Amino acid sequence: MTIPSKGCRDMSGHLIGEQGVKQLSWVLPEECPIAICLNGESYAVMLATPLDLEDFAIGFCLSEGLVTARDKILSIQQKVRKDGIEVHITLSDEALERVQLMDRRRRLAGGSGCGICGLSSLSHVGEMPVPLVSDLKIPLASILKVRAAFENHTPLHQRCYSVHGAVFADVDGNVLVAREDVGRHNALDKLIGSLSVQGLDVGQGFVMITSRFAYELVQKCARLKVPVAVSISAPTTMAIEMARAANMTLGAFSGKDELMVFSAENRLV
């Protein structure tokens, strides 16, 4: 079952200024609690835009390391509740055992901007991924092409402006998949899930996001072996350190036609 949603709706208010008070409506993004349930048990509650929730569920499981492949997810069902939406995921016995053995348990509600809520130990924050091996080469012109056309692929942003976007493009700068959400982690998870569903090879292109690249976003990309990741906003120091450890190319725009690259710059030509 797919939950119908446009991702945004009109909300009325009063505009107050020197000219007085007048009633207006703004188009604003929807945000609601999304409960991720694994084999009948609640695992995490995230605040997200209720669009592309199957992609979100798949991407969350993959990027958080709950499953190693999409075929470990046997089914996904969505249920509307009074206070949010439940996404019920049935994992294979092997995957469920993996989850139960993991140290990290997200047993509390995480906000749309929170990426480390529920970790059981500070030592888990700094877990470094296996270094990536890739001979991929991306022309700078392809990255600039995606940057220039980014808004064309984010219709929700065009309507309400206050959402994050994540896209995947090939080496020629053709955008193959785009996803949006109020939460930057959610937008990336939705992108990862869609890439998996469509069977696209993340090793043959690059990811671009609108938000800053914090460490947990780099960690998600590294788990999926994304070789090149670019943000329109600046990354954090911890994100750069993780990208270097993962041998992942991490760049951020300086203006609209220059890229500051902090790691593995040899992949850009």
What order do the SSEs take from the amino end to the carboxyl end, as H and E?
Answer: EEEEHEEHEHHEEHEHEHEE
The spatial strand order of the largest sheet comes to 9-8-10-11-12-13
Helix count?
A: 7
Q: Span between N and C termini?
A: 45 Å
Indicate the CATH class of the largest domain: Alpha Beta
- Overall pLDDT confidence: 89
Give the CATH H-level superfamily of the largest domain: Cytidine Deaminase, domain 2
Anisotropy-based shape:
globular
Going by helix content, strand content and strand pairing, the class is alpha/beta
Biggest sheet layout: 6 strands, mixed
CATH level-3 fold name of the largest domain: Cytidine Deaminase, domain 2
Helical content band: 25-40%
The tally of domains stands at 2
Spans of at least 5 consecutive residues whose pLDDT stays below 50 are 103-111
What is the gyration radius calculated from CA atoms?
A: 19 Å
Strand content: 25-35%
Question: Could you characterize what this model shows?
Answer:
With 269 residues, the chain is an alpha/beta fold. The chain folds into 2 domains: 32-124, Roll (Ubiquitin-like (UB roll)); 140-267, Cytidine Deaminase, domain 2 (3-Layer(aba) Sandwich). Helices cover 26% and strands 32% of the residues. It is built from 7 helices and 13 strands. The strands form 3 sheets. It has a 6-stranded mixed β-sheet. Strands 5-6-3-4-7 form a 5-stranded mixed β-sheet. A two-stranded antiparallel ribbon has the order 1-2. Helix 1 (53-63) crosses helix 5 (184-198) and helix 6 (215-223) runs parallel beside helix 7. The radius of gyration is 19 Å and the shape is globular. The protein starts with 7 loop residues before the first strand and ends in a 6-residue tail after the last strand. The relative contact order is 0.14.
